[in-house]
Write a structure and sequence with these properties.
Length: about 450
Amino acid sequence: MNSAFLEEAKLFLEQHPEIREIDLLLPDMNAVLRGKRIQKKKLSSIYKKGIYFPASVFAMDVSGETMEETGLGFESGDQDIPCFPVPETLKKVPWQKQRGQLLLRMFETDGSPFYGNPREVLQTVCEKLADSGLNPVVAVEMEFYLTDPKRRSGQAPQPARSPETGQSETEGQLFSLSTLDVYEEFLHDISVASASQDIPADTVLSELAPGQFEINLYHVPDAVQACDHAVLLKRIIRSIARKHKMEATFMAKPYPEEAGSGMHVHVSLLDEKGQNLFQGKDASGSPELRYAVQGLRSTLAESMLICAPHANSFHRFQSGSYAPINSSWGYNNRTVSLRIPANDGPDMRIEYRLAGADANPYLLVAALLSGIHHGLSAKQNPPPPVEGNAYLEIDTELPRTWEQALNRFEQAEILPQYFGQDFCRLFANLKSGEQSRFLSRIVPHEYDWYLKTV
């Protein structure tokens, strides 16, 4: 461990003497931040010696219960694994003036990265691209809803109360500047918090549904860092929402009749000379762009469990909802899964639109980069781009249910080459356990339908 890294903690505490506690953050398989809170006097020790977390952190479902199907729970003795800081992620927590935060990495006992950490999976895929002389440039866009925190268990959320009127929002206005004005203080606090943590939050816009917003992150030439930004921005949005007496949800489809929330990812590739590999002679881009599109299309079905990881995720896929429902691609067309935004210059890129806001950014971007690398290797052209309404395209390839998505992931042929067989087995077993537990519950709707009728 180099001396500059060891000095990071010392310099941080010298520059911020008000800090009393540090939140240690470890994103799990669902990108839920697990962690511990320590006193500042222990920080230097963690930089030198690390801190132990149970490996079962990567066996938890979204509710925090360990899925024993993974083998990381009782079967392994629920063993502890050492974790160390991620360099340059020690930051202040703006909404808690005496607190800092720090991302962690988990390591095997032999010093290699822990195989079950999604962040390490992405790092491995990036290294494979680097071996080919390619560097991905990535930007993440996230949609979310603001809701009223007063909600009984099992009930649907209500839209947040307007800071202006005190009444629940009933209408949404796409690209409405007046809506941004109403929530100006909330959005300003997000901007300030993001800047203080060096998170490049860029554009914010009002979405179609009441209480729905989108915040875009500026592109960076480091895919892992781009996903760090996405995970930490979620933490900021949720925390600032609580400060304003609201809740922020990244649930893919919180309301049956309203638009779902997506996580769109923009990707381009730089070659060894720093030139955009996707840029061509005109607006159609380069041959490599089309190879990459076909590579992505070949992995869409087997990566569906990654882009739609939960039961609720699949409610989002409805025709005409701006959530794609097939493996279509096209230029300047928001009805497709793989969109090439209008551009004929160095900003030529692919926008992946299939995933929900509930996806794990690390696994999602790892799947996208795997598909792109596969496509560049296979050098196959996609079918003609879709013009007009892609919802009219008949496509039976993509799984339409949570269970089908798990089956396709278990049968995957391309992703295991990039993610590793051990990780794929772990993720599949985790989701299998989560599905069994979720589907074993009797929901209120079943009583309404069946109690007195069958």
